[in-house]
Design brief:
The protein has 440 residues and is of the alpha/beta class. Helices cover 42% and strands 19% of the residues.
Length: 440
Amino acid sequence: MTYKEARVYLDEVSKYGSVLGLDTVRELLGELGNPQDGLKFIHIAGTNGKGSVLAFTSTILSEAGYKTGRYISPTVISYLERIQIDGTWISERKFAGYVKEIQKAVARMEAKGMAHPTVFEIETAIAFLHFRKEMCDFVVLEAGLGGSLDATNVVENTEFAVFTTISRDHMGFLGETLEKIAENKSGIIKPGCMVVSAAQEPEVEAVLRRRAESLGCPIVFAVPEETAVQKESYKGMTFTYPRWGKTPVSIQMAGRYQILNGAVVFELAKLLKIPQRAVIDGFQKARWVGRFTCICEKPLFLIDGAHNRDAARRLKESVQQYFQGKQVIFIMGVFRDKEYEEIARQMASLAESIYTVELPDRERTLKAEDLKEVCSRYCTGSVIASASIKDAVTAALREACRKENSVVLAFGSLSYLGEVIREVKEIEDTSKTIKSGDER
């Protein structure tokens, strides 16, 4: 099987949709010899910050000499980046080989009358097969949706259950209250593990403490207010966390919310007894594309995957912190099942102009015209429904080049930011080619 054939197979499997529950993934992994049973996991759940905490944690572990697998979802740059070892993506050849093995396992399941696994369940199985074959010391595992019934929660060898900030998102699946959402996510806590959490709302903290205590698991909460920021910009920051030590660390991921994520990782590093040098180097080397990431300097162009109310609030704080007095041009695209009205309410008033776009997932996307109508309620500048992501990027860059002191920010769903990156790069490359020709 080739990589292209493997992707075609998974595209066909996508018709089975997304199904919460562990029965089918357990059956699939059983057919594959339960590769997850030979691995040690750091399992991360939460609403915002999972990817950043995963990036910091896995890079620190790699710097400490541990062979570290990381499993993330969704991806921004490439499909293959969802499965990595020490920062290296799984190869197309190995991916195709695992899919061929899984295809045979699925056929056996169907012959027994069992349900067909979903794409996410198959991707999770591929990750476990890869990490076991490569004999990873740790796997840093990001929950896909919620916790209790997410396919990743099939694992039993959880060394640490880690929680980023928990807020309202996916209410149709996880519950309408913070308590219910927290109860769902708390399902990743397993007997014998240690629990590390970001600072939480009181009702969320109570849920996590109750679950941890019921299973006899020690729990630690980060204290981000003890963090002292020494310097910061849209390119990153330097700060200290006295509960870990006096030595400052520098990170290349910007946004004040990274202090919340950093505090969680400091607490985890303490419990893991990671050497100071590995922690400092791991923080500095960690990257997470799609979280207040600068992709172009002239004009300044950033991307951010803020797709719920809490992430929008954090993004607003960052825009006000770093770009006070600048003319900010937005590109915005969201799924229609998100709180887009609330996101627009928080963000749109900051914009000089907004270009709304539709996402690659045509079934879930909010129409550009509908998003334009919502944004127009809060933005005093122009709001334009773009025909394509390419059109939006081109128009926003042209506007930024015409106006001094401008910044372009594309945000919303992570699912379209990869295309934004590609379009910006293509425009940059074309501009360089034209300039080079003019100089000759």
